[in-house]
Amino acid sequence: MPKLLILSQHADEYTRLIQSAALPELEMTTQPAEDCEIVFGEPNLIRDALPRLPRLQWVQSMWAGVEPLLGAAARRDYVLTNARGVFGGLMSEFVFGYLLAHERKIFQRHEAQKNKIWDHSPTGTLQGKTIGLLGVGSIGAELALTAKFFGMNTRGYTKESETSNHVDIYYHGADVRAFASKLDYLVGVLPNTMDTRNFINRDLLGALPPHALLINVGRGQTLDEYALLEALNQNKIAGAVLDVFAQEPLPQDHPFWTTPNLRMTFHTSAPSFPKDITQIFIENYLLYIEGKPLKYQVDFKRGY
Questions:
Q1: Phi and psi at residue 102, in whole multiples of 5°?
Q2: What is the CB neighbour count within 10 angstroms for residue 151?
Q3: What are phi and psi of 5, to 5 degrees?
Q4: Which CATH class is domain 88-264?
Q5: Are 231 and 200 in contact, with CB atoms under 8 Å apart?
């Protein structure tokens, strides 16, 4: 009988959800033990428990990002799967909430109300605007689908894949400046890998039109923060919305706090709801006990 270790700040809730699924041949614990074969948990907690899990066969991450498990000295003698397919809708709500706020001048109207100013300036529309998606995995594909609902033009920049039918044109490799040109919105959904560090850099930002807005919901490490500070302070782009940062929590002396035309949220764009994450584990567990390939396997070398 496989023994499952649940490692989470919300272990009680995850335990209850798995128990209610009545999965066959499964024993559960919340304390690391030598006979644990499966781990379902948060990567930072799993990393610390790995030395005490000699019989580990499979790790199901509760997060999409698994960076704590990818260090050069980290174990790689098990199958690692991550959480996918549940964040796309949540990311779309976040991203398009800010796109609509930008076009419809929602923040500007709020300021006008506070100052008792009748602001009758015209609003914009998403229809006909061009959105560029840096990364078109499951989340990027959901963003492309939502963009089409609003009548937008869609561009995607990927390493090589072209899996979403809702992207009008794909760009790869050295085509990044061509990808960025004429965009109204650039949305970063890249994973954190050696190839993506500081990918949103001075060159890419410089290729954007001055009216463009950047939204980064992927990983903070993919953004060159100093290049963005320069772009915003010199009005090279219209603004930015950041949900992720290279260092979290963001230090109070960081210049982002007072940078003009920058709005920050705090890694809250796509919360992990236990019910959704547990369903991923359940589907993979049923595959596991049947000896079938698991969904959402992570390539240790690629980092995603």
A1: -70, -50
A2: 11
A3: -105, 125
A4: alpha beta
A5: no
